UniProtKB/TrEMBL annotation:
Gene3D superfamilies: 3.40.50.2300. Pfam families: LMWPc (PF01451). Residues 5-147 form the Phosphotyrosine protein phosphatase I domain. GO terms for molecular function: protein tyrosine phosphatase activity. InterPro entries: LMW_PTPase, Ptyr_pPase, Ptyr_pPase_sf. It comes from the Bacteria. SMART domains: LMWPc. This is Protein-tyrosine phosphatase.
Length: 150
């Protein structure tokens, strides 16, 4: 996987899981430069980071300044880009709607890193629920970085 130089985390509206994943990714040290971005699958207009997700990130010493959700585009796919979803349904949606999406460049986070469960959607839950989501993402993303650097 060391030919990957860009990672895009994609989830629903692009306002909680994918930006949290991106922020966590940036918080870990890397042995080589990898661009990491967040995209939503259903973005009608740019929205800020979910307030509960932001609170959890800040409480963990991570700040995501001036975040605004962006729609996943066909142009986001390239030879050295890996698009990572949180749920299999999201992955299937991408594979069916984007010409440049393939089984190889569009992956499910938990399968990619060998975790058993998908990353649950904290939307509508308490700050504690967002905190649990953060913890799951942190463990998975640490494994992802090791994979990308081998």
């Amino acid at each position: 996987m060391n030919n990957i130089n860009r990672v895009i985390f994609a989830s629903g509206s692009g306002t909680s899981r994918s930006p949290m994943a991106t922020a966590i990714f940036h918080s870990f040290p890397h042995s080589r430069p990898i661009i990491c971005e967040s995209r939503g699958l259903i973005v009608q207009f740019p929205e800020p980071l979910n307030q509960k997700a932001e609170a959890v990130l800040i409480s963990n010493g991570i700040e995501l300044k001036d975040y605004s959700s962006k729609q996943l585009q066909e142009s986001d796919f390239s030879e050295n880009t890996l698009v990572i979803t949180m749920e299999e349904t999201q992955r299937q949606k991408i594979l069916s709607e984007y010409t440049n999406a393939t089984e190889e460049n569009t992956r499910l986070l938990n399968e990619l890193v060998g975790d058993e469960l998908e990353v649950m959607d904290p939307y509508g839950g308490s700050v504690q629920t967002y905190g649990l989501c953060y913890e799951v993402l942190k463990v998975s993303i640490e494994k992802l970085i090791k994979l990308l650097e081998t």
